[in-house]
């Protein structure tokens, strides 16, 4: 978090401690939240109207940035990721086609509704319960503008909870989740924080928002992580057995009997040789082509997705990890969009 952001939050905390009337503080918070949601609503309406006017789109991936980093247990750099990912998508280093030939410049394939103004909301001393609601409400606003489907740019992995919650509630039932990560992120409460990026999937499973949760790329897991996995019936695929599991994982069929498939990709699922720009470097991960093979061969109706935990402050080699994150977004766009 920037020093300016910290000063803003501390200032409001001091005001609250100095007996500023609660109703006055809440009024200010409500105005900022209302303005934030209005921003997303109007952008989503504009993009939805454009896509519908062009015609022919059954589903369109719509970027929504959630620049949140304060629920990280180590570094907060993922808050700076959304603009860097967008820059890499459109930098001109490569063309704008996905591997299967969909054209990102076609707004029926990909559109963008901007970022949830997380820092501005936190500067008003809004707590995480309300912030998570704002994120969920923002996702729902995107989904209201058919055929837009949210493709969320994190941010740390704590954002997956409010996003999946919104998708499940909006669609009226649970989804199947494909989760690629070095870690299971299923602690009951990590370091006393129920919204920790290491606890997001515990909240998702507790809420009943997922029927199946498949976790792929796991190579840093504690006893609690395994016990929580068993408690919730999670299908955990560790890297130590990936060669054995490869055929199954590269031929997944998900989403039958539920509202669709949600894909969550933590960039640290990749081996750091492919993506060094992450907060938690964990050797022994998936290759980039392993990830693409899993995505390309997946059979299922992908209703939403996220790419999280890219940390620009740790990126190297002229933004290599930014390009990796951008490529993941490109291929997820191809998976979500339907013309």
TrEMBL record:
Molecular function, one GO term: arginase activity
Coiled coil: none
Signal peptide as annotated in the record: none
Catalytic activity: L-arginine + H2O = urea + L-ornithine
Keywords: Arginine metabolism, Hydrolase, Manganese, Metal-binding
Cofactor mode of binding and number, as noted: Binds 2 manganese ions per subunit.
Statement: the UniProt record of this protein carries the keyword Secreted: no
Superkingdom classification of source: Eukaryota
Record: residues binding Mn(2+): 157, 181, 183, 185, 266, 268
Cofactor (UniProt): Mn(2+)
Protein's pathway: Nitrogen metabolism; urea cycle; L-ornithine and urea from L-arginine: step 1/1
Protein EC: 3.5.3.1
Name the record gives this protein: arginase
Protein encoded by which gene: LOC115957797
């Amino acid at each position: 978090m920037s020093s300016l952001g910290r000063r803003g939050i501390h200032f409001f905390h001091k005001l609250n401690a100095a007996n500023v009337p609660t109703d006055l503080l809440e009024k200010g918070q409500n105005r900022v939240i209302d303005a934030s949601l209005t921003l997303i609503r109007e952008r989503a309406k504009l993009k939805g109207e454009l896509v519908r006017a062009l015609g022919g789109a059954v589903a369109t991936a719509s970027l929504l940035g959630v620049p949140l980093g304060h629920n990280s247990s180590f570094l907060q750099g993922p808050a700076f990721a959304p603009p860097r990912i967008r820059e890499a998508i459109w930098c001109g280093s490569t063309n704008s086609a996905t591997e299967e030939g969909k054209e990102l410049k076609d707004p029926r394939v990909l559109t963008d509704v901007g970022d949830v103004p997380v820092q501005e909301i936190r500067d008003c001393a809004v707590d995480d319960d309300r912030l998570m609601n704002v994120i969920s409400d923002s996702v729902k606003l995107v989904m209201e503008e058919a055929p837009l489907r949210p493709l969320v740019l994190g941010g740390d992995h704590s954002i997956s909870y409010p996003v999946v919650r919104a998708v499940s509630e909006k669609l009226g039932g649970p989804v199947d989740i494909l989760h690629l990560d070095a870690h299971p992120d299923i602690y009951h409460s990590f370091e006393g924080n129920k919204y920790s990026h290491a606890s997001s999937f515990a909240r998702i499973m507790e809420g009943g928002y997922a029927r199946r949760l498949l976790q792929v790329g796991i190579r840093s897991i504690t006893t609690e992580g395994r016990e929580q996995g068993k408690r919730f019936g999670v299908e955990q695929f560790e890297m130590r057995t990936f060669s054995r599991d490869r055929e199954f994982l590269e031929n997944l069929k998900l989403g039958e009997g539920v509202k669709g498939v949600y894909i969550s990709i933590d960039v640290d699922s990749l081996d750091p040789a492919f993506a060094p720009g992450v907060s938690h470097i964990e050797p022994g991960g998936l290759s980039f082509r392993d990830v693409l093979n899993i995505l390309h061969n997946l059979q299922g109706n992908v209703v939403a997705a996220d790419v999280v935990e890219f940390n620009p402050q740790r990126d190297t080699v002229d933004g290599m990890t930014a390009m990796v994150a951008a490529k993941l977004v490109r291929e997820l766009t191809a998976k979500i969009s339907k013309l």
